[in-house]
Amino acid sequence: xxxxxxxxxxxxxxxxxxxxxxxxxxxxxxxxxxxxxxxxxxxxxxxxxxxxxxxxxxxxxxxxxxxxxxxxxxxxxxxxxxxxxxxxxxxxxxxxxxxxxxxxxxxxxxxxxxxxxxxxxxxxxxxxxxxxxxxxxxxxxxxxxxxxxxxxxxxxxxxxxxxxxx
Length: 166
What we know:
One of its GO terms (molecular function) is electron transfer activity. By secondary structure, the protein is mainly α. It has one domain: Up-down Bundle (Four Helix Bundle (Hemerythrin (Met), subunit A)). Helix content is 73%, strand content 0%. The longest helix is centred in the first third of the chain and has 26 residues. It is globular. The N terminus is likely disordered.
């Protein structure tokens, strides 16, 4: 692990710890913004990539539960939903001006249409909040299926306009 990754892990670790506390979402976002400000472009790209990969893994695990490919685990589902909510809240600050460099899968539209991008991120956060709320009383995958699908649709909508296709 290089020095940038270590600094990044520390910065994101602090944010993750705060997210677990009763820190208001706006304060969490401000703290993450400050932490990212001190990092170079590569470190910000790594933070962005790590955040998105974490969400992808969480969504994949939840999808297996919802599609009955894996047994439903209410505790695990709640943890995954919390991670998704925390990561969706981080999206707007993970795309600061000046980080649209070669190698990034983000399209220039992220920086050309910042208000629209932020609106989709906010919508995704709202859907993630609803998913997290659905996990709290959940005892079966059916209890979270609709909320999960809404998050997945929100992710797809943003990726359609703001991420390079594979």
